[in-house]
Design a protein that fits this description.
The chain has one domain: Cytochrome c oxidase, subunit III, four-helix bundle (Four Helix Bundle (Hemerythrin (Met), subunit A)), CATH 1.20.120.80. Helices cover about 75% and strands about 0% of the residues. The longest helix has about 40 residues. The mean pLDDT is about 85.
């Protein structure tokens, strides 16, 4: 006797996404807690250079780009709910372009962080915080790459007109993921600017 597989409820994917985001929140939260702890209580906290960190200006551009991705995906979800496929495709393409732009801008920014770290090391300054910032920015960028892959998958499905006002969870999930990445980026970048 052959059994027909029972389809999973649609909410299972959403629960899985929220569990994944909770795990990522713990990863980024503990990383930021460690960063603040090192900056405020570590050996570098006594350094005169503690408040003279200089963030590459490109990180401000990255901030605008990642916020743009979220806005575009918000508009894409709105378009699919109204079954407006042309605007949906436009906003998905816009989101993908901005996401790729984020990665393109982050690359030279991370190179600048490594160069700043090396320059301080060459001057005999034992300020390793640029290396830590590089690691945290890289960690976020790797999750952005995952978001780009999700966007490409959504766009492939949309090219087959797979979504309508009742069936659009992948777009909604991609938007939630990118909103999460926005919050993480804003917290990280804000912490770097405030704590130094």
């Amino acid at each position: 006797m052959t059994r027909t597989p029972v389809p999973l409820p649609r909410s299972v994917g959403t629960i899985g996404l929220w569990l994944f985001l909770a795990a990522l929140a713990m990863l980024f939260g503990s990383s930021m807690f460690g960063y603040v702890l090192i900056r405020l209580t570590g050996p570098e906290a006594l350094s005169q250079d503690r408040h003279t960190l200089h963030m590459p200006g490109l990180l401000w551009v990255s901030t605008l780009l990642v916020l743009g991705v979220s806005l575009a995906l918000h508009l894409a979800v709105d378009a699919v709910r109204r079954e407006r496929h042309e605007p949906l495709r436009l906003w998905l393409r816009t989101a993908l372009g901005l996401a790729i732009g984020f990665i393109v801008v982050q690359t030279p920014a991370m190179i600048l962080l490594v160069r700043m770290h090396a320059a301080l090391r060459d001057q005999g300054v034992r300020l390793h915080v640029y290396g830590l910032i590089f690691f945290l920015v890289l960690l976020h960028a790797l999750h952005v790459v995952g978001g780009v892959i999700a966007l490409v998958r959504v766009m492939v499905h949309e090219s087959k007109s797979a979504f309508d006002h009742e069936h659009y969870l992948p777009i909604h999930h991609a938007a939630i993921y990118w909103h999460f990445l926005d919050v993480v980026w804003l917290v990280m970048f804000g912490t770097f600017l405030i704590v130094g």
